[in-house]
Design goal:
Layout (H helix, E strand, L loop, with lengths): L11 H8 L5 E6 L6 H11 L3 E7 L6 H7 L8 E3 L8 H10 L6 E3 L7 H10 L5 E3 L8 H10 L4 E3 L8 H10 L5 E3 L8 H10 L1
Parallel strand pairs: 1-2, 2-3, 3-4, 4-5, 5-6, 6-7
């Protein structure tokens, strides 16, 4: 269900009829402005109970309170993308990791304001996580990545364009993630040839 272009004109009957026979639902909100509270209530009523994938991208006028209310009766989210939203903070990640700790497998937090605390919350609770995207999160440091690596074993991680990630964190990540098959590191200026050697040894 992609409400990105239709949220301003959609009717309750449209959402109800579209979702009534669907066993599982994926919801996309991309570059959406303010959403009518009534539409949010319809999403919560008809979509949230069957929701397994959620993408909220570049929704700058959206708020965490709105999203939280929409997801009140959602319990089995597997895929979460909150990319490019200034309101996505460590507190938001903490609450999402608490709510979906048993179901989350894929998380995308690219271009958000999260810090190492967010990785601590994810690592502490979301032990079934398979992939994580953290591109362009300038507040992340070695400490967060090391803490995450000690707790969960990822198949895929993207940490491109992060200026504080160093060789030591990458070494811990690789040594503790035996299932890792995809790693993207573009434009991490503190990584050196030492990381290249560690990657070569891990192959």
């Amino acid at each position: 269900v992609n409400l990105s272009c239709w949220h301003a004109i959609v009717q309750e009957s449209h959402i109800r009829d579209h979702c009534k026979d669907a066993p599982l639902i994926s919801l996309v909100l991309d570059d959406v402005g303010k959403i009518d509270p009534e539409v949010c209530s319809w999403v919560g009523k008809y979509i949230a109970p069957k929701l397994v994938e959620l993408s909220v991208i570049s929704c700058h006028d959206f708020t965490w309170k709105q999203l939280k209310n929409m997801l009140e009766v959602s319990y089995s989210l597997c895929w979460l993308c909150l990319r490019k939203n200034h309101w996505v903070t460590d507190d938001v990640v903490e609450q999402m990791s608490l709510k979906y700790q048993k179901s989350l497998q894929h998380v995308d937090l690219e271009y958000t304001k999260i810090s190492d605390n967010a990785l601590f919350h994810i690592g502490k609770r979301c032990l079934g996580l398979k992939s994580l995207r953290l591109d362009c999160c300038p507040r992340l440091t070695n400490a967060g990545l090391v803490e995450l690596s000690r707790r969960i074993h990822l198949n895929s991680i993207h940490i491109c364009h992060n200026v504080n990630i160093e060789d030591s964190a990458l070494e811990v990540l690789l040594s503790s993630s035996s299932y890792l098959t995809s790693l993207k590191l573009t434009n991490c200026p503190k990584l050196t040839d030492q990381s290249v050697n560690v990657l070569h040894e891990a192959l």
